[in-house]
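From the shared-data thread, chain only:
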Amino acid sequence: MSVEEAERYFRRQPFEELGYAKLDMHREIRSGFPEVIYCSGKADAHLVSIYRKLYEANGEAFGTRADRHQFEAVKEALPAVVYDEISRILKIEKTEKRRSGRIAVCTAGTADIPVAEEAAQTAEYFGSYVERIYDVGVSGLHRLLSRLDSIQRANCVVAVAGMEGALASVIGGLVRNPVIAVPTSVGYGAGFHGVSALLTMLNSCANGIATVNIDNGYGAGYLATQINRLAEGKGQVEADGDGGKIPGADR
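Structure, as tokens:
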């Protein structure tokens, strides 16, 4: 970076105090991922201010669980913002962004797509290439098997399912790379708003499955990107100024 850019980084506090929020401006330096805004429940004035600050700092900004009213409020201040009704994601994204690796995002049914899109668009925002494979639930297993080659090529698979949540177990038994199971609140009464799917995924007899919270597409997309970066050799940490890596980091 230039001397001017370095000076700007050193002058900035690790967080920016807004009174009602402390924006973690150094999060990307520490973790490789900038701070993301959880929009639901925020006052309009707070959301707009936070969104503007992160956009000014990073040249892009990403919000989850936004509604249309919040989109209109942010759009008035930042006309470049776009909103996806399905995933409820609110974002301004750099146009020159390149995506690498491969993540497969699979759903059991079309009712699971909103959560799957939150996962897919999160991973894409963070620089991963995503292949969407929707409506391949276990009630018609031939649909999943018809896309098995694509799923097996992925560095990581996100399996999104409600009702009994069996999709993650089936995929876990067919692939060699990690599977992230996402239970959704889709289903009838005994599904307990996703608890049944959650318990199925936690009790899976297939190995290599990690389970996130009910409807937590963002968490799945984030974790999938971490795995994808490691698979592509982009997750290694520099240990010191001369480029030495932490021992074993490239194993």
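The chain has ten helices and eleven strands.
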